[in-house]
Specification:
about 240 residues; eight-stranded mixed beta sheet; about 25% strand; 3-demethylubiquinol 3-O-methyltransferase activity; S-adenosyl-L-methionine; UbiG_MeTrfase
Length: about 240
């Protein structure tokens, strides 16, 4: 892999090996299927609807979020560097006859150089904690969105609680995720992500936490950002 690409080959291989299971709601990707309606509704509400908008999903994987945004009427481009996951996303779009979604194997930074200020909404969910330089991805997302447009991120906080819940609990006790899915050192504190956003001319507008009850197997959004969290930002209008 080109050394200038902001990606970890081991991370790409990890998700490519599981690619055939992306759309199985009882697979390792069950949490993504379960949280998708929550994050989709939050994005749609803050963005003032998705119908007719140009939307980019950075780190789209097998297309769970990208597909659902297209079904809300958006014109969606999903990008990723995991080849097998993208093929699964493309195949699912064909089988499900999803209109308005396309996929490309391209880095966010490369697309930003190619198509600045192209999108009304940019999403980058559950991806920043898997790349070597998350600030570079944030900057690319800012370049890609139109002035005044929305950019949404979700990731994992870095603290002892998140280590216990997101790694020990989710990967080793509850088996919600395959072991080795996350590396604690790559988790990102909200203050760090806010700093990346400010330097990229993105203004933090809203934040949410995400909680999980292992007994009811239910997720919900709340104000506790100590483990999983989402932020909504807007590009500074010139």
């Amino acid at each position: 892999m080109n050394a200038t690409v902001n990606a970890d080959p081991a991370e790409l291989a990890k998700f490519s090996d599981l690619a055939h299971r992306w759309w199985d709601p009882e697979s390792e990707f069950r949490p993504l299927h379960q949280i998708n309606p929550l994050r989709l509704a939050w994005i749609e509400q803050l963005a003032g609807g998705l119908a007719g908008k140009q939307v980019l999903d950075v780190g789209c994987g097998g297309g769970i979020l990208a597909d659902s945004m297209a079904r809300k009427g958006a014109e969606v481009l999903g990008i990723d560097l995991a080849t097998k996951a993208l093929r699964v996303a493309q195949l699912h779009a064909l089988e499900a006859q999803t209109q308005g979604v396309t996929y490309r194997e391209v880095a966010a930074e490369a697309l930003a150089a190619e198509s600045p200020a192209r999108f009304d909404v940019v999403t980058c969910m559950e991806m920043l904690e898997h790349v070597p330089d998350p600030a570079s991805v944030v900057a690319a997302c800012s370049t890609l969105v139109k002035p005044g447009g929305w950019v949404f991120f979700s990731t994992l906080n870095r603290n002892p609680k998140s280590f216990m819940f997101a790694i020990v609990g989710a990967e080793y006790v509850l088996n919600l995720l395959p072991r080795g899915t996350h590396e604690y050192a790559k988790f990102i504190r909200p203050s760090e992500l806010a700093g990346y956003c400010r330097r990229a001319d993105l203004t933090l507008e809203h934040s949410k936490g995400m909680a999980y009850n292992p007994l009811t197997r239910r997720y919900w959004l709340n104000q506790d950002t100590s483990v999983n969290y989402l932020i909504a930002t807007r590009k500074v209008a010139v």
